[in-house]
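2024-03-11 09:14:02 DEBUG pipeline.ingest accepted 1 chain
2024-03-11 09:14:02 DEBUG pipeline.ingest length=121
2024-03-11 09:14:03 DEBUG pipeline.predict start
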Amino acid sequence: MRVVRVLLVDDCPEFRKLLARMLRGLGFEIAASVGSGEEALQVLGSERPDVVILDIAMPGLNGLETAKRIREVDADVKLLVVSLHSTPEYRAAAAAIGVDAYVCKANLVPELPRVLAELCA
């Protein structure tokens, strides 16, 4: 079975470390872990992740704009938003961009493994 490579994009280093530990425990490989949308766009081509996990609320290039730019250059990468902001408006905006899945950080532990399994099936 092929190992799925994940790019983590969140401005909180502690959250990225926690998420990386969780994902490694589930058998995923962390392609890169970056703190901004700009950094994500810089490493996207060289790291070639299968999945990009993005926060929405980041300084500079926010997660939705980052997702839009990623989708423009890579139609195949799976985009997953993980955010504290789980309003219908954010979900609709993410879906309109082509985000594949959306998980609220408050439900991360029970939902993330299931959502990733569905994305990577």
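2024-03-11 09:14:41 DEBUG pipeline.report The chain is about 45% helix and 20% strand.
2024-03-11 09:14:41 DEBUG pipeline.predict end
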